[in-house]
Amino acid sequence: MAVRLAVAEDIPRIVDMVCALREAIGGSVEPDPAKVSETVMILMGSPSGIVLVSGGGFLAGSIAPTIISNERFAHELGWFAADSSGLRLLRAFEVWADNHGARVRLSTGPEEWVPYRLRSALQRRGYRAQETAWVK
Questions:
Q1: Longest Cα separation, the chain
Q2: Which residues 6+ apart lie within 8 Å of 125 measured at CB?
């Protein structure tokens, strides 16, 4: 399946993938299916939001400035692919961000948690690990 914009009928599958993402990364935050659905619907209806889907994955994000700069960033809010569509989802997100004059910011977690193949692919695309999130 090609990468495309999500529609309302995709929401239950996206909720399932968010739960699968949490399991895959050992996340400490339990997804709330109602909140995931609500957030996905908001992103789908916002000119500064996007939700992309593929046969086995999704990528959701939104555009916003940072507190330190007027530069616009397309913030990845969730990205998961159980198939080989992860980089296709990323490419589509990058095109969307570029069309909106925004740089891309990915939230992959600590660099050592990122699988080697993904880390290598991101580095080849010009990404570099910048920050680590601390969660209590």
A1: 39
A2: 90, 94
- Within a 13 Å sphere around the CA of 109, how many CA atoms are in the beta-carbon half? 15
Q: Which residues contact 114 (CB under 8 A, 6 or more apart)?
A: 108, 122
Cβ proximity of 17 and 36 under 8 Å: no
Of the pLDDT bands very low, low, confident and very high (cuts 50, 70, 90), residue 122 is: confident
**Model confidence pLDDT, tens digit, residues 67-100:** 888 889 999 999 999 998 999 999 999 999 999 9
Q: Which H/E stretch holds residue 17?
A: helix 11-25
Any bridge partners for residue 74, and if so which? 63, 104
Closest CA to 96 of 128, 52, 39: 52
pLDDT digits (tens, 9 = 90+) for 107-121: 766 667 777 888 888
Do residues 63 and 97 touch, judged by C-beta distance below 8 A?
yes
Q: What is the share, in percent, of the chain residues with pLDDT greater than 90? A: 59
- Asked whether the beta carbons of 34 and 25 are under 8 A apart, the reply is no
SS3 at position 67: coil
